[in-house]
Amino acid sequence: MTLVTLVEMARVTAVPLSYLLTRGQQVKVVAQLLRQAMQEDLLLPVVKSEGGEDFEGATVIEPLKGYYDVPIATLDFSSLYPSIMIAHNLCYTTLLPPGGPQKHGSVLL
């Protein structure tokens, strides 16, 4: 990244320039959430880390399995989502209706 790009990213995301070089992507998202929460007079919970933690891993929330017909927001900072989708053939186009595939003429749906 060029210096101009870093400065503008720091300005837009409201994080110190040094955070862009030493921290991951999550700090930028959290900063945006905090900024929006302040504008709407909302409070966000803060989870304090326990002492002795040398490395902060990813936050993984166990998903609720099922088919959703409404938009779902995901944050995948390491681009693992596409890899998992490809590896397990998970896609709305591979969803089978209850009772299995239906034949319509010569096309199997």
Automatic annotation (TrEMBL):
Gene Ontology cellular-component terms listed: delta DNA polymerase complex
Which domain of life does this protein belong to? Eukaryota
Q: What is an example of a Pfam family matching this protein?
A: DNA_pol_B
Reactions listed under catalytic activity = DNA(n) + a 2'-deoxyribonucleoside 5'-triphosphate = DNA(n+1) + diphosphate
GO biological processes: base-excision repair, gap-filling; DNA replication proofreading; nucleotide-excision repair, DNA gap filling
Annotated DNA-directed DNA polymerase family B multifunctional domain ranges read 15-98
Kindly state which keywords UniProt assigns to this record, in alphabetical order.
Answer: DNA-binding, DNA-directed DNA polymerase, Nucleotidyltransferase, Transferase
In terms of InterPro entries, this protein maps to: DNA-dir_DNA_pol_B_multi_dom (IPR006134), DNA/RNA_pol_sf (IPR043502), DNA_pol_palm_dom_sf (IPR023211), DNA_pol_type-B (IPR050240), RNaseH_sf (IPR036397)
The protein here is known as: DNA-directed DNA polymerase
Q: Which organism is it from?
A: Lonchura striata (white-rumped munia)
